[in-house]
Amino acid sequence: MEANSSLLEQFKENDDLYFKWFEFWLNFHPRKYQRKYLKSCLHNNKVIGIWSRQSGKSTSTAAYLVFRLFIGECSVMITAPTLTHSSELFYKIRNFININPILKKEVVKFTATELILNNNSRAKALPSGTEGKSIRGFTADIVVEEEAGIIDDYINNSVIMPMLASKGDEGQVIKIGTPLTKNHFFRSAYNDKSFDLTRVTWKECIEEGQYSEQFVEDQRKNITDIQFLTEYQSEFVEELASMFPTSLLNECMEDYNIFKYL
Description:
Elements: H1 7-12, H2 15-26, H3 32-43, E1 46-51, H4 57-71, E2 75-80, H5 83-98, H6 101-105, E3 107-110, E4 114-117, E5 122-127, E6 142-146, H7 153-160, E7 172-177, H8 184-190, E8 196-200, H9 202-207, H10 213-222, H11 225-231, H12 246-251
Parallel strand pairs: 1-7, 1-8, 2-5, 2-6, 6-7
Antiparallel strand pairs: 3-4, 4-5
Helix pairs in contact: 3-4, 4-5
């Protein structure tokens, strides 16, 4: 396949052509909520995905990344708190490429953490760790934060986002994961209007046949309410884990002048 940067704009003008690419090259037929997310990835430079467990979030992201890597020269950085998390998404990319012999022939190098194609596209998967030292200094067209809810604010702001600095308005960041504490992941989803959010709950999964109703009911019975709300309802529930709600604490605070007594 010949790299052509203008292809991306053509796909942006024709969503049907975009989804046919996934069907033809990857034999991937996305569900309704996956199509919404894939459209978000195509048309937005800042993307958030908060999905119920095992609903196809990583698979959808992997499919999009394969699309971007093959339609034109592109650099991708996949990072997560641990190598296990980032490698899992990388593994899904490998699987998509391996099912198509034409795509597979375009691979120059494919290790557990790095992919290089004939069109000079490149993808790497590395852990952010606790300080982000292993990913400092990299530049990318697309940065994916897998399990973004676990990635520290400092690493996100001071290490990951600067990877896109030289790309201007063309760089893309995709944050995906399970809702946990109200860190940068929460703020990007609900306080920053420049991010486009796709939220998928157990209800959409039942409607699309990803879950059965029996599976959901079994999960309700076997895990805590907080676990169910985060893992399947895709809600941030930090308030439920706190002794005092944030709203009450805010009401108890007031700005005042500090006087120095002589």
